[in-house]
Amino acid sequence: MNRMFPTKIAVGAIAVLGGIALAAAPAHAQKRDILIGGGSVTGVYYQVALQTCDLMNKHANENYNCVGRPALGSVFNVNAVNRGLLDFGVVQSDRNWQALTGNADWDGKPVEKLRSVFSMHPEAVLLVTRKDTGIKSVEDLKGKTVNIGNPGSGQRGNSTDLLPLYGIDIDSDIKAEGLQQNEASRALVDKKVDAFIYTVGVPSAAIEEPANSTDIDILDINSDAIKDFISDKPYYVMAKYPAGLFKGVDEFETYAVKATVVASADADEQMVYDYVKTVFENLDELKKTHAAFQVLDEAEMLKGLSAPLHAGAERYYKERGWL
To answer: Is the domain of 142 the same as that of 233?
Structure first.
């Protein structure tokens, strides 16, 4: 973990080794480092981390040096934020709620200091397969090799929620793989997996790349059991997507969560305020950086927040008259 996200102490040690460079640029040494954890390099979470950091470095660079990193997903990001290894993390709205309330991966151990900053794009739970597998429904996954997401990712949590609703035992009915998504997309094309489950904002390169290399299907996840499952969970919605969104893919319906940016209650209030202010005051610029961000709307970015607001975010929203 530390190799991916060095602690502030480790960063400081590296800086000492580069003392000559620091001495030549003392102004830069006054900048506060910000680390934001995203997801797989082919996913949209990484783009959230990368592009919001770019806004900070462009519009608030006199005070901050922001770095957006790829990471292992929602569970990892919550835990890294809680331990102070990340300043911000991108997390599915359902995982945000589970962490706060002590459910699922945090069973009996709520992350009480978890705080919401803002929501981003909606994310669909996608079941992607090759057309030559004969898989036409979720039930057809029995006996197949299926990537359910790497440990510590939100998609793995969605997989373990989803498959039992269709009568599928992950341990005995399928051969479950735990690949990161960039590996899973390639494995589908190479016929090393028959299908993968991925929770992502669309369009996404993780789906476009296999679609451009082989014939794929995205299956409906809209059974009565699914609709009943989400009925009492405000962080889920049903979503329909049109034909042609990906090459050769017909229209499909599934359920979706929202990507949310979170921080610890211990995170510096002024830093969080400056980050939120920079994102919202340059929202049009952010929307141009990725197709999934085109739907961003100020009012919608305050919805789907499963944990209480961080004090820095709350201060900005009150200044804007939104609270």
So the answer is: yes
